[in-house]
Amino acid sequence: MSTKATSNKKKKKKKKSGAGTAILTVFLVIFLVGVITAGSVALTVLKDLRLIDFGDAKPVEDEVAGVDYLDLDNYITNQAKTTIIYAYDTDGNLVEDTRLHGSENRLIASLDEMSPYVKDAVVALEDQRFYSHHGVDWYGTARSIVTDLTGGQMQGGSTITQQLIKNLTGENKRTLIRKYNEIKNALALERHFSKEQILEAYLNTIYLDQGCYGIKTAAEYYFGKDAKDLTVMESAVLVSITQRPRGNNPIINYENNRKRAEICVYNMWAFGMITEDEYNEAMNQKLVFVGKKAAETELSDSTELEVSTTTTEYQSWYTDYLINNVISDLSAKYGYTSGEAWRMVYYGGLKIISAVDMRIQGIMDDVYTNRTTFADESGKEESEKIQSAMVIMNYEGRIMGIAGALGPKAGNRVLSYATGGDPRNPGSSIKPLSVYTPAIEGNYFYWSSRIPNYGITLADGTVWPKNYGGYTGSITDLKTLPQALAPSLNTVPARMLQTIGTSYCYAFLRDRFHISTLTQADNDYAPLAIGDMAHGVSPLDMSAAYAVFGNGGLYYTPYSYYEVRDAEDKVILKPDENGQRVISEGTADVMNHMLQAPVTYSNGTANGYGVSGFTTFAKTGTSSDNYDKWMVGGTPYYVCAAWVGYKDRQAININLFGTYPAAKVFKYVMNLVHEDLEEKEFEYSSDSVRRSYCTVSGMLASSRCASTNTGWYKIDNLPGTCTICGSRTEPVENNDPEARF
User: Fold this and answer.
1) Which side of the chain, N or C, has fewer Cβ within a 10 Å radius?
2) CATH architecture of the domain covering 101-307
3) Count H helices, E strands: the chain?
4) Closest among 512, 587, 518 to 549, alpha carbons compared
5) DSSP assignment of 441-485, as one string?
6) DSSP symbol at 32
């Protein structure tokens, strides 16, 4: 071989050697870059997770989920919570009446308010290393991640802390990125909150089916008991629901729940949380469920279980109004939209102290549900039958009871005829408010003023109005105010209105009696003189207005609650319980006495419908088309407004229901309400006096007047003494109501 050939071979070897070195160098560089990158990522992750600390980390803040850290207090505060309405029972004890919630029924409880078995059960079943890890169970997490990376389905491994984060944030996607963020949040959460705080928050946020959020709500729903009274097995049953709420519901899927609950109880024994005796007692306990779905479900293991049957009932008419009242007041005071106020009532965890009188409301519920006092309309659908509504108040604005309609209640917050949902024409029951009271207060007329029982002449020459039954009356037939009020004459108030003026009387209804359904069209003769109004009135407005006649002339805004507290127990609403003087005490006294005439006079429309054993003032009303019947009145204890009519506004058959069906139900209910109440009389002021008057002139009687009667007058508006009677015979006082006509 030549020297030249040998040299060429050496060159080729050098070239091959140089290329290999270059490739090796590239691979080495790539490897080193990969190691450095992986190391940097690992260090970044470890630093991000705060598993290592280079000394540059902020001492307090954690950037978690876009905020410093998950603030448990803030999250719990903003969780939807159940509102509870309380009321005073007949013994004066404050008791729970109704619970309000949307899709989330949640009652918050501290660990101290839960059975100790509850926290042991959840740890034994879901996270045995809860007290030793720092928010993450690395063994379970590693298993979950490996399964995900190898193509398997993302598995569990979450700790109680991680599950709490899912409950609070709603992040529940089964992805690696979500798992990483969950780990990061869990580690941060445990740096800022104790194990007890985390466990308490978790037990208040877990979903336990049937709309129950949290242990306290579930304990009451499933077992009818407080969370602090749960037994070992009951605690195990509840925490066993969490994995698959509907699938592990102990009422709907008892056997599924039982298997998991037995595992839980066994773990509690194995970890030394309960004794062997407690274990045996738990396994042998006979469970009794009281949930509303219990009665609808056939359970497979009757030897282990008893079911207490309950029936679904709608909340009372009073509660319906109370809710609407609170929503309205929240909007008025804080500027909330109706939607915001509604959400606060149903999700805000409010404590509402109802003003309902549970005894009175119970009486009204019974009478109205069963249609007591009303003739049977068999063959008609419930919606076609006659309707009625009633409100009872005291004389300082407290609503004692509400009945919104006759028959079984069809739902919650449905149409109520009692509180303005469908106003009806008041007929003559408006006259004391629209004519007689303005007449006395404005000193236009007094008790013994003598007014022709004859209508006014309209522009077309016709005489209007006629009395009930088409009776025209006579221009020479003079009536005093109680003589006109008792039989509900239409002619006399029309004449009085002509003297007073419609504007003054309309303003009285609007500004003093606060009739909320008025329109400008009601500033006219027909609405004010005979109650033919544009929209009508509600029993609530009428009872509040008539209360003025029994309390000395003060108007009180009706209220249905004493106070409302927020979830932090801060008072956020209280009603205005201060009365507004709208008429003088003297006027109130005179009107009270005058309104007793319809009850006591033999031709009074309310005669025979007074409350047994108690002085009663009252006024009936019938709309001109006979669609609506009313009775509004009061005793020294309460004021009541009752309405009767049809939903579709049709004439009432008096042959079937009688002439005064509203007076009939008024008397029946009020008699029940007044049973066993002590005797009581109205209190009158010194601003009114009783005087004899001449039945001929209507003036105060003199010694010359042969025929007299007695009436009530404001002390500052006494009529003059009669001067037209010429006889010197001693006056004869006639107190017989029959002789007043």
Assistant:
1) N
2) Orthogonal Bundle (1.10)
3) 25, 23
4) 587
5) HTTS--TT--EEEE-EEPTTS-EE-PPTTS--EEEEEEE-HHHHH
6) H
Q: How many CA atoms lie within 13 A of 628 on its CB side?
A: 31
Which residues are CB-neighbours of 482 under 8 A, at least 6 positions away?
A: 447, 594, 597, 601, 711, 740
| Contact assessment for residue 645 and residue 389, using Cβ atoms and an 8 Å cutoff | no
Computed on alpha carbons and rounded to an integer, the radius of gyration of the chain in Å comes to: 40
Is 57 a residue whose pLDDT tops 60? no
Looking at residue 100, its pLDDT comes to: 85
**The pair of three-digit structure tokens given for residue 91, joined into one six-digit string:** 């013994």
Q: Please report where in the chains the tokens 């740096």 appear, as a residue.
A: 191
The Cα–Cα gap between 120 and 123 comes to: 5
Q: Does the N-terminal peptide bond of residue 465 adopt cis geometry, omega within 30 degrees of 0?
A: yes
Q: Which residue ranges does the chain devote to CATH 1.10.3810.10?
A: 101-307
| Longest Cα–Cα distance in the chain | 178
Report phi then psi at 277, rounded to 5: -65, -40
Picking from 446, 450, 439, 436, the residue whose alpha carbon sits closest to that of residue 695 is: 450
In this prediction the pTM is 0.77
* Pairwise CA distance, residues 684 & 693, whole Å: 20
SS in 3 state form for 661-713?
HHHHHHHHHHHHHCCCCCCCCCCCCCCEEEEEEECCCCCECCCCCCEEEEEEE
Contact between residue 483 and residue 602 where contact means Cβ atoms under 8 Å apart = no
- Least confident range from 138-142, 242-246, 409-413: namely 138-142
Residue 62: pLDDT band (50, 70, 90) is very low
3-class SS at 494? helix
Provide CB contacts within 8 A for 358, sequence distance 6+. 87, 88, 89, 90, 97
- CATH architecture, domain defined by 427-673: 3-Layer(aba) Sandwich (3.40)
- As a whole number, mean pLDDT of residues 238-242 equals 94
Domain span(s) for CATH 3.40.710.10 in the chain: 427-673
Which tens digits make up the pLDDT trace of 526-544? 999 999 999 999 999 999 9
% pLDDT > 70, the chain: 80
Determine how many CB atoms are found less than 10 A away from the CB of residue 170: 7
pLDDT digits over 416-464, tens only?
A: 999 988 999 999 999 999 999 999 999 999 999 999 999 999 889 899 9
Average pLDDT over residues 214-230: 92
Backbone angles phi, psi at 238, to 5 degrees: -70, -45
Residue 154, pLDDT above cutoff 50: no
Q: What is the mean pLDDT of residues 475-489?
A: 97
